[in-house]
Amino acid sequence: MSTSPTATGRNERRGDGTYIVLTRTFRAPIEDVWAAITEPERLARWIGRWTGDPAQGTVRFEMLFEGEGVEPEEYTIDACDAPARLELTSRTAYDEQTPATWHLQLDLTEADGVTTLTFAQSMDDPAMAENVGPGWEYYLDRLVAAETGGDPEAIDFADYYPALAGHYRALSG
Question: Which of 23, 29, 76, 143 is the most buried (most CB within 10 A)?
Answer without folding.
Answer: 143
